[in-house]
Amino acid sequence: MTRLPEKGVTDVRELHALLDRSYVAHVGVVRDGHPLVVPTGMARDGDRLLVHGSTGSGWMRLLADGADACVTVTSLEGIVVARSAFESSFHYRSAVVFGQFTVLDGDAKRAALDVLVEHLVPGRLAEVRASTNRELAATLVLALPLDTWSLRVSDKWPEDEPDDVSGDAWAGVVPMRPVFGEPLPAPDLRAGIPVPPSVRAL
Q: What is the pTM of this model?
């Protein structure tokens, strides 16, 4: 990416940090000659990115067959309120990962699904039953190596023109932070079952 190169970040630790606090990735692939972008749950596992879905999913099978993929993850962290509409923007961190997914099977598949569950709700594996063989057979798990990627970070103050700075308009940044709400029990939850530690810790 050549536009605004000062936003580029090459530290892989920054990439890992973004992926570790994100839950959804947008996976791009060309299917039948047309671009397709699908949001899906994800988790980082070391130096690879994990996704999963139904074995009946056309786009998942396409990735399983080795199609070239592009995966994006974005964290929106604030609104930059400038003194002009032109300079107004966002604080964000955005990663793009390129490559080909590989299929995980057997013990590697089970382990990857455990990583995905623990990424979503840490500690949840100890509270629920394990997946059945039938459930595993219906699930496709894919891994994408974090070999080729681009990371851009925008975290500066408004960069207004001198004439605007001397004017009367307010300027600054409004931070945005994700916040979990109060857990809502399922309508069919049996009475007397408390909110588990994993959920309380979110």
A: 0.90
